[in-house]
Amino acid sequence: MKRYVCQRCGKEFTSPQALAGHVKAAHSGASKTDRMLTLLSNIDNRLARIESLLEEILGFLRDRAFQELKLSEKVELKLPSEEGLPEYAVNNPWINVLARRGRD
């Protein structure tokens, strides 16, 4: 009588159907586990890539925010004295606004 041997555990069976039933019942979980580990590894790799991209984006945003901060630093404007100005320019708040124009 011919014997059919399980490649994974060495157990012997008298028919190919019995061997197939054994492999399905006893060893199908191992292949599912392998597939799950592969999927988890793929997910882990993707998350690592996403994390790397996020760090790159944050670095870019920090650099940009720093540049904007440098540009927005207040510069002391020395306005001419109000002596000699026309009456409408004396104590006019728009003079300060217009003096900063183009620098903001």
Descriptive report:
It is built from two helices and two strands, in the order ββαα. The chain is mostly helical. The protein has one domain (4-100). A two-stranded antiparallel ribbon has the order 1-2. It is rod-shaped. The mean pLDDT is 81.
What is the strand and helix layout of this fold?
Layout: E1 4-5, E2 12-13, H1 16-72, H2 93-100
Antiparallel strand pairs: 1-2
| Protein structure class | mainly alpha
Order of helix and strand elements from N to C terminus? EEHH
Count of DSSP-assigned helices: 2
Mean pLDDT: 81
Helix content: 55-70%
List unreliable stretches of 5+ residues.
Answer: none
Shape: rod-shaped
Biggest β-sheet strands, sense, barrel: 2 strands, antiparallel
Percent strand equals under 5%
Beta-strand segment tally: 2
Number of domains: 1
Strand order of the largest sheet: 1-2
End-to-end C-alpha gap = 95 Å
Radius of gyration over alpha carbons?
A: 39 Å
